Amino acid sequence: MNKKVKQAIAFAIFRLLGFLVVGVLFCILGFIVYNGAGVISWEFLTAAPEEGMSAGGIFPAIVGTLCLVVGSIAFAFPVGVMSGIYIHEYLGNRWIVRVIRVMTNNLGGIPSIVFGLFGMALFVNAFGFGDSILAGSCTLGLLILPLIIRTTEEALKAIPDSYRAGSYALGAGKLQTIFRVTLPVAMPNIITGLILSVGRVSGETAPILFTVAAYFLPRLPSGIFDQVMALPYHLYVIATSGTDIEASRPMAYGTALVLVIIVLAMNLLATATRLHLGKKTKQD
Amino acid sequence: MKGSRRVIKYIAEGLFTLSGGITSFAILLIVIFLFKEGAGLFSSPTVERGYALCVHASNPTRVLDAREIKRAFDGEASAWQEIGTGEMTGEIALLRLEDLDALYPGEMDEAGEAARRRVEEAIGDRPGVIAFLPEEYLPESEEVARRLETGNVTGVEFFAGGEWQPTVAPAARLGVLPLLLGTVWVGFFAIILALVPGLGVAIYLSELAGARARAWLKPTIELLAGIPSVVYGFFGLVVLVPFIQGMFDLPVGESALAGSVVLAIMALPTIITIAEDAMRGTPRALREASLALGATHWQTIYRVVIPHSSSGITAAAVLGIGRAVGETMAVLMVTGNAAVIPHSLFEPVRTIPATIAAELGEAPVGGTHYQALFLLGCILFAITMAINLSAEFIAARGQKGGGA
Amino acid sequence: MIETKHVDFYYSSFHALKNISMRMEARTVTALIGPSGCGKSTFLRLFNRMNDLIDDTRVSGECLIDGEDIYHKSVAVDELRKRVGMVFQKPNPFPKSIFENVAYGLRVNDIRDKSFIAYRVEASLRAAALWDEVKDKLRESAFALSGGQQQRLCIARALAVSPSVLLMDEPASALDPISTSKIEELIADLKKEYTIVIVTHNMQQAARVSDHTGFFMMGELVEFGETARIFSCPEREQTRNYVNGRFG
Question: CB-based contacts of B240: which residues, under 8 Å, 6+ apart?
């Protein structure tokens, strides 16, 4: 009987912990949604900040984040996918692969502020890009590179060798096999990784602090050497160092909610992509 | 036709190789650039570049170090006996540019010949003087005013220094200890707070939750790992900080505790996901063997499942620490950022990443402060790299060994 | 003594066992044979309620051990499993030392007396004919043993909690011939004290070790009787075909 009682107590504790932790995490989301929902309006999304960022909207920050997303993906996606192909299809299983894998894994574990430092040293100063969309995009691109490489590798690994063998047996070369057989089958998973990294890029603050983000810049960028505002940095600014922190609270709630929505949407989209595209390629 | 295809093949494969090469060695590039920018620190003068310290020509003191300079300019030391080698005696008289401006109104606006003569005059009048002036204001001859050697920033000062005051003139104090301890302090409590609930939830998810509950809980928790850190920081700022302030009756709510709680919440998804994966990896045969011997479900969990997945659980904890140590924005927003060695959970502290984020924008590129911040980056890089490598090592050992 | 009366078993909508009634006497060996997927393993796992671990399963009818209905509400599953030991298809020692593997069942049943544990471990290892091979390395990992030794360790582990019934789910299928014959000798020995039910694919093995044999097909018990008779003159055509190796 004794051990029964112990089990009952232990399981009660774990159930409680489970509900508690999940409850706390949901409270955070609920809090942001509850306070932010009233702020979001068409004007909030399409107007520039006014009156010391305590009124108006966040349009320039949305555009800025969009620029950074497009820029970083444009850099990281091709490089990441090509690296994944190189590592998995060309290097095979040599010792160098293990070294490279350890390195890319660790690249993913480096704090984002270190990427910020590196971006400042290399892109802003050494390459002379200055604080610009270009420098910020490169820094963010580097940050999501490990994620894209890893998903590409996983996607390629999941493809049975019989697919490749079938292609080779018909006289196709390695490159043709990659482009006509392997990549199309792997694409849904690679796209999933891409969408998740969009979510990541939209939310990162530390890497853009010194490479692109502008404190207040109500006009839109005209080229890749311009500075921009960005959503996460904007939230940081109006939450901690705006001209009137109290008055800009509603703006902060709204911005936080927009960020949360972007991340939620990207996750849902990723799941949908995996299910939808996954089905399609299976039917073919 | 054949030829062009071959060209395409070479180009494509060349691109693959290039990308693979670039990304594989991105980490080396990061190391090189961080150290390149940071390494200059130990050959930088203690005193801000472009400035110099002068004493009266009769003063036998040749060298002052950063601590002595600070004591003199902070008024902690008022006589020469208290600093330097002891050869010089008498009152210390401080002389800054603003003092000269007050003495000779209007004459110090430009660093010309006239201003330099006035400087010479002022120093000549005061035998116990220490003057802290821009170099262009210093007289060329050393007959009246002699420059002090101030030495370079030393490793001991940096790594064992207990004060971080990077913008103090004339000699910045660049002791990394308060920041390092602040980081460890906040990260340590965060992991203590996160580990028990995190493992509890992992056990709940892998062992107790029904298939349907698990099917939506697991993705939700993974999703929470993707919420930007500024949002967590913002939540901490508007909810947690006032709550802690009220609950413990503190003068300010921004404290190590607030930072630890926010970091714990942020580390939870990481810990839960990895630990849960490890527990679910326990072979079915082992569970059945245990249950078939009359063990209860709970006994099976703590005698078979947890020992079997211990390396995965350890890796989860280590990666959780890694996340907590490197986290920047949330910590910056809720810990109050006082660069003092932490004594309790209820005082403001400042971590390494928060310091970099807060100060790099204001540090002149290439200056001592800038170099010191890059060196902080190097330290952070080394810490997280060590953490990640050990997590990887622990997880790999668990996979291989299983037994023994 | 084990008895089932009109037992049906379902995996969600799949009818895996159909109206099985069977009686196994104490201190005998009963072999369950039949083609893959015929339900013989499912039937075996009824007796220590291992099927409970699979979601969405249902059992009806009566399942009695020494006259007690083991699916009755008042039965504590862990107590039942202590009385009914099980040896699995593949050796599945815990990642612990040899000693701790055997002691595990005692420890989870709150036995703390060290000398008693040491005594039971030795007795069980002797009963499993493993003692002489491992007595000098009780603290070493169980993974250092060979496959056959691991399986005998698992038998010792099951014996340590003093069960009255021993269920064996193809205990020799993953082993080499020499290890297999050792396990078979062991079964003949253990019969003196335990009621043994063994599932096997190997007809010669069933003929060698068992007193009674039940032949299963498509979830039904086709024929049940003394082993010698089942293998020499089966009553049913299906049984004859199977034991003669025509299918399965």
Answer: B253, B258, B261, B262, B334
Whole-number percent of chain B with pLDDT over 90? 21
The number of residues in chain B equals 404
CB atoms C85 and B308 under 8 Å: no
Q: C213 forms bridges with which residues in the sheet?
A: C31, C225
Low-confidence ranges of chain C (pLDDT < 70): 246-248
Asked if pLDDT for residue A186 goes beyond 70, the answer is yes
Question: What span, in angstroms and rounded, lies between the C-alpha atoms of A33 and A231?
Answer: 16
Own/partner contacts of B156-159, CB < 8 Å, gap of 24 or more, are B157/B66, B158/B41, B158/B42, B158/B372, B158/B375
- Spell out the alpha helix ranges (H) of chain C: 40-44, 77-83, 98-107, 114-127, 131-134, 147-160, 177-190, 203-209, 227-232, 237-243
Which class for B246: exposed (0-12), middle (13-18), buried (19 or more C-beta within 10 A)?
Answer: exposed
* Residue A257, in any domain of the structure: yes
Domain B177-401 -> CATH class = mainly alpha
**B198-230 pLDDT tens trace:** 999 999 999 888 888 888 888 888 888 889 999
Asked if B230 and A205 come within 8 Å (Cβ–Cβ), the reply is yes
ipTM: 0.90
User: Which amino acid is located at B316 in the chain?
Assistant: A
Question: Given an 8 Å threshold on Cβ–Cβ distance, is A2 in contact with C78?
Answer: no
CATH number of domain containing A203: 1.10.3720.10
* Average pLDDT taken over every residue of chain C: 89
* CATH number of the domain where residue C43 is located: 3.40.50.300
pTM of the model as a whole? 0.83
Q: Which chains, if any, share at least 3 CB pairs under 8 A with chain A? A: B, C
Residues on chain C touching A4 (C-beta within 8 angstroms)? 76, 78
Q: How many CB atoms lie within 10 A of CB A84?
A: 28
The topology (CATH level 3) of B51-151 is: D-Maltodextrin-Binding Protein; domain 2 (3.40.190)
Number of structural domains chain A divides into: 1
What residue has token string 């089966």? C234
